[in-house]
Amino acid sequence: MGKNVLRMIREATISILAALVFVSIATAPSATPQPFQDLISQETSRTRVGIDVWSERGFAPLAGKRIGLISNLTGRNNRGELTAHVLRAEPSVDLVAIFSPEHGFSGIEEGSVASSSDNASGLPVHSLYGEARRPTSEMLDGLDALVFDIQDIGTRFYTYATTMAYAMEEAAAHGLSFVVLDRPNPIAGAYVQGPLLDESELSFVGYAPIPVRHGMTIGELARYFNQERGIGADLTVVEIAGWRRTDWYDATGLQWTNPSPNIRNLVQATLYPAVGPLETTNVSVGRGTEEPFEWFGAPWIDAQRLAEVLNAAALPGVRFVPHDRTPLASVYASELCHGVDIILTNRDTFTAGLTAITLATTLHELHGETWSLEQFPRLWGRPEVIYQLRSGLSATQIAATWAADLAKFLEIRERYLIYE
């Protein structure tokens, strides 16, 4: 799957057209990647992630150091071996503690996660999504460095980047080195879309004023956070080998591991920055269904009319089909919901920010008395969006309000990019 994809890559250019800002490329669409467990581990991928490059370098500069690893099941080398197991078996590295993010080290837990121990090694596994959201002094006692190896998905409100940033802050405060084993941005690193987070909306689901879809790897984000947020950590990013900004995940040859329970394929990761902001409202985004983030709905939605209005908007790269579903969990569990499937027709023209705000303006237009939008700014990142929606501004008018800030961000972002 994806092996016969033909890609024509032209020089990336930045285009700000009020409603959308993205770097133009042409990449032929490719198939949805198989789940991790359906793939046979290979060493044929042209992309080598940070743990592979670090291994080749003899684990410098942390050879002989006592380290804590922040990771989960997405932290793997090209052979499919967990980074935790690789480091545990490496005599030149002293792995003494593991730290886990949201969803735990297993990557499948929901809600608050308790600290535990690793069955294979007996090492403590400190949860950073439970009573503590950042490493404590007690957790860091005796460590020389923290190493971060988690697959991010390129969306501002995905919490792994905040976990990394909080850990960087604590590493700086405790005099520890911080190493990021970089990984590709699965939804490509050439697209930057949506509004910047307002400083008033900073939270665990929004660490810094960056766009909804930032177009950076986790290592590039670490560089950005370290400087722009004044963290000042002793930071090393072990770079990816063989990855280009225009590469989607299925062009890398790397195995897919679900980064969280409801991001099960590349299509869902791609749609997440557009559909995710609806989660703070009284709408199901498909949790508890077979296709989370590829559908949204509610018992009170007129699905046929919703699909008609959304399709009339002619959003690039997507179309909408009415579809009733009954979620088995989360919002409206066991209730029949009327909604729409989101069909990704061209991922290279798809524009997350414009799509997201069009979903919001359409819901407000059709169901303004029922759709609860008070918490919408929490993931969207802009408090003024409530006024904009209630004032009847169109999606393109609202998109125009973030274009200037996005252009400024693109200039600053350039300083921290690693890959061409």
TrEMBL record:
InterPro entries: NamZ, NamZ_C, NamZ_N. Residues 67-266 form the Peptidoglycan beta-N-acetylmuramidase NamZ N-terminal domain. Gene3D superfamilies: 3.90.1150.140, Uncharacterised protein PF07075, DUF1343 (3.40.50.12170). Pfam families: NamZ_C (PF20732), NamZ_N (PF07075). Residues 271-419 form the Peptidoglycan beta-N-acetylmuramidase NamZ C-terminal domain. One of its GO terms (molecular function) is peptidoglycan beta-N-acetylmuramidase activity. This is DUF1343 domain-containing protein. It comes from marine metagenome. The lineage of its organism: unclassified sequences, metagenomes, ecological metagenomes.
